[in-house]
């Protein structure tokens, strides 16, 4: 998941209101949330806060139409806790809507953007990432994984899409300047093909959960859908989650996140060094209270560990009142992450036996696959 800024630099933005005020997205309101039997904590907290045509998509579902969800993964490294949380959210959507889920593993993206040295490297990460996704319990019958360069339907649809894109359109949409890599330009067509595949092949309405940096792709894809005379994809947009240091989570800065391959000792070290909103001393913390709004540890507990609003509110109040100190919060998060990833890796090892049931093309397990 990525956003394109000037040149071929990938950045992450935090201007949430601009998406609504200038680019036509709508806020997710209570009446939409009520459609779900058991609303996900990401929805209740407005972590997913805006949408395009979610109301129309849910109306189609209510009227008895089969629906699909598309969410991709760029395989250039091991997955981290933020990736797992997104796919858990998608699994919740699948269960709520009995939806088909299409998951493109965009090896082509990571190669043309220079994030991996070879397509073989991207393939190895794609298989590892796929096992992480399968381990979350997606439906075998309704989940379709595919590696982009291994899927002929994607190439064919990309060519069809490219007919409706111009160099100036792509350049203006993403703010590209002085791009000499044709692969970056063509990837706009590929990404649109990923999103539109269930609609073009099966006639399924599509919902895409994405970060706000992906909105340029979504607007472009919706324009292409109109040209192809197919249903426009709907989208729901998430806010960013800060990394442990306060920076965006990044594989190039492993201290910013917890990865699926991290040992308990590595998890403990990373969380213990995390940015908090605490006071300089325990005495001051007890007297003045902490600032959970600045604390990454609280943010992670809220989004990745706690599952109900009451517990989140209690933790917030206890921090503000000085009843909790930072070391206690860090220990809660460390213990939860270690337990979570230990169980996840057990399910990931079991997923190797079932991997063929999820892919729409043949796959092989690469040499050197390592699951701790």
Walk me through the structure.
With 372 residues, the chain is of the alpha/beta class. The chain has helices spanning 16-21, 30-33, 41-44, 54-62, 81-97, 107-112, 119-134, 152-162, 167-174, 182-202, 215-228, 264-272, 282-288, 296-305, 309-320, 326-351; strands at 26-27, 48-52, 68-70, 100-105, 143-147, 206-211, 234-238. Strands 1-2-7-6-3-4-5 form a seven-stranded mixed sheet, sandwiched between helices. Helix 12 packs antiparallel against helix 16 (326-351) and helix 14 crosses helix 16. The protein contains 16 helices and seven strands. 48% of the residues lie in helices and 9% in strands.
Map the helices and strands:
Blueprint: H1 16-21, E1 26-27, H2 30-33, H3 41-44, E2 48-52, H4 54-62, E3 68-70, H5 81-97, E4 100-105, H6 107-112, H7 119-134, E5 143-147, H8 152-162, H9 167-174, H10 182-202, E6 206-211, H11 215-228, E7 234-238, H12 264-272, H13 282-288, H14 296-305, H15 309-320, H16 326-351
Parallel strand pairs: 3-4, 3-6, 4-5, 6-7
Antiparallel strand pairs: 1-2, 2-7
Helix pairs in contact: 7-16, 8-10, 10-11, 12-16, 14-16
Annotation keywords:
7-stranded mixed sheet; 48% helix; 9% strand; disordered N terminus
β-sheet strand percentage: 5-15%
Q: What is the molecular shape?
A: globular
* Low-pLDDT stretches: 1-13
The count of DSSP E runs of length 2 or more, i.e. the number of strands, is: 7
Q: Give, in spatial order, the strands making up the sheet with the most strands.
A: 1-2-7-6-3-4-5
N-to-C terminal Cα separation, in Å?
A: 25 Å
Radius of gyration: 21 Å
Helix tally? 16
């Amino acid at each position: 998941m990525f956003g394109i800024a000037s040149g071929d630099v990938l950045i992450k933005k935090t201007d949430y209101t601009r998406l609504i005020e200038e680019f036509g997205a709508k806020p997710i309101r209570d009446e939409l949330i009520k459609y779900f039997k058991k609303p996900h904590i990401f929805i209740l907290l407005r972590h997913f806060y805006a949408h395009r045509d979610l109301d129309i998509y849910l109306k189609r579902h209510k009227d008895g139409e089969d629906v699909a969800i598309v969410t991709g993964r760029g395989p250039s490294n091991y997955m981290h806790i933020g990736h797992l949380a997104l796919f858990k959210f998608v699994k919740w959507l699948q269960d709520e809507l009995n939806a088909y889920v299409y998951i493109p593993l965009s090896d082509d993206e990571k190669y043309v953007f220079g994030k991996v040295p070879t397509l073989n490297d991207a393939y190895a990460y794609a298989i590892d990432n796929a096992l992480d996704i399968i381990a979350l319990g997606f439906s075998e019958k309704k989940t379709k994984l595919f590696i982009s360069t291994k899927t002929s339907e994607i190439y064919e649809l990309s060519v069809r899409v490219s007919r409706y894109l111009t160099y100036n359109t792509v350049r203006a949409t993403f703010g590209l300047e002085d791009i000499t890599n044709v692969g970056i330009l063509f990837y706009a067509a590929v990404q649109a093909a990923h999103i539109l595949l269930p609609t073009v092949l099966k006639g399924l309405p599509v919902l895409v959960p994405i970060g706000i940096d992906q909105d340029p792709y979504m607007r472009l894809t919706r324009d292409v859908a109109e040209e192809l005379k197919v249903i426009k994809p709907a989208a729901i947009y998430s806010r960013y989650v800060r990394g442990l240091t306060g920076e965006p989570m990044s594989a190039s800065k492993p201290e910013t996140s917890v990865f699926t391959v991290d040992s308990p000792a590595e998890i403990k070290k990373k969380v213990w060094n995390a940015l908090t909103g605490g006071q300089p001393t325990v005495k001051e913390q007890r007297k003045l209270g902490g600032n959970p709004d600045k604390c990454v540890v609280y943010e992670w507990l809220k989004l990745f560990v706690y599952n109900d609003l009451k517990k989140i509110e209690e933790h917030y109040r206890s921090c503000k009142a000085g009843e909790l100190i930072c070391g206690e919060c860090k220990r809660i998060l460390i213990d939860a992450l270690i337990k979570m990833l230990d169980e996840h890796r057990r399910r990931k090892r079991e997923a190797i036996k079932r991997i063929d049931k999820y892919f729409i093309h043949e796959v092989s397990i690469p040499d050197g696959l390592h699951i701790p």
